[in-house]
Amino acid sequence: MSVLTPDANAGAVALVTGGGTGIGRATALALARTGAAVAICGRREEPLEGTRAEIEALGGSCLAHACDLREQEESERLVDAVLAEHGRVDILVNNAGGQFSAPAEEISLNGWRAVQRLSVEAVWQLTRDVAARSMIPGAGGVVFFNTFSPRRGIPGFAHACAARAALENLAAGLASEWSRHGIRVLALALGSVRTEGLEAYGEDLDEQAKLVPLGRLATPEEVGEITAFLASPASAYITGTTIAIDGGVDAWGNATPPPFNRD
Fold first, then answer.
1. What's the number of CA atoms in the CB half-sphere (13 Å) around residue 63?
2. Cα(64)–Cα(84) distance, rounded to whole angstroms?
3. 199 three-class SS
4. How much is the pLDDT for 154?
5. CA dihedral in degrees (73, 78, 83, 85; nearest 10)?
6. Do 42 and 19 meet the contact criterion of CB atoms below 8 Å apart?
7. What is the pLDDT of residues 1-21, one digit of tens each?
8. Whole-prediction pTM value?
């Protein structure tokens, strides 16, 4: 159950990318539970429709739009659809992303570019479009960049680590530049979150939990609730920073498990 009031984000319009599954779905639901009208996008219609049905069952409003954000025309059509439906976007959650596991020396230039295109270029295209067409001429808003922790290298994901670090610095730069327009920008540095996507990598999630000082992985709902709080007026003085949601991994900082979580 949410600890936020049902009207914490009342009257706001939120756009969540990758909103059909995992963290995106949980974030869309949390924003809807706190009063926001929600739009979600993703490449597959079926999971989007599932999230839309859940939000409407709560009595909320949800626009589900299937698209590939890597394609500029499709990204622009998404913004067209949201503005046609609601007239503005107040909350943008850049959650969609993608990467693959490979030794650094085996990542080709095409593989590198594929990750940058989805995780950086598509994110920038959508963010710039929403800001230019809604937030800057409007009353501001809040932009989120969801990343796994950009503060450390992760073996097998050199390309993705570089992309996520770019988003953290993009958040700081945009917050400095766009604050005059009333736009807040935040990066969420996520640790391991127990989702279908994480399970697809075939790793032992119980073993991963031993690397976390709190001794467990996050749930998508926890990330969603934090996002809903940070989007609300209660967080109106928070911008230009990175919020670590990782159970203490960044603070621990070592490659070995915390002593109290070892067998």
1. 22
2. 13
3. helix
4. 80
5. 140
6. yes
7. 688 999 999 999 999 999 999
8. 0.93
Q: Supply the DSSP string of 143-186, one letter for each residue.
A: EEEEEE-TTS--TT-HHHHHHHHHHHHHHHHHHHHHGGGTEEEE
Of 204, 95, 114, residue with least CA distance to 162: 114
* CA 19 – CA 112 distance, rounded (Å): 25
Domains of the chain, first to last: 13-249+256-261 (3.40.50.720)
In tens, the pLDDT along 115-143 reads 999 999 999 999 999 999 999 998 899 99
pLDDT for the residue 251: 85
- Please state, in angstroms and as integers, the Cα–Cα distance from residue 21 to each residue in 34, 52, 115, 130, 239, following that order: 19, 11, 20, 23, 27
pLDDT band for position 202 (cuts 50, 70, 90): low
Residue 66 β-bridge partners: 42
Give the pLDDT confidence of 141-150 residue by residue, as tens digits. Answer: 999 999 887 5
Task: Give the residue-averaged pLDDT of 106-118.
Answer: 93
Q: How far apart are CA 250 and CA 262, in angstroms?
A: 18
Q: Which one, of 183, 28, 194, lies nearest residue 96 by Cα?
A: 28
Residue type, 110: N
The whole-angstrom distance between residue 27's C-alpha and the CA centroid of its chain comes to 8
Other CB atoms closer than 10 Å to residue 125's CB: what's the count? 18
Residue 14 near residue 93 (C-beta atoms within 8 A): yes
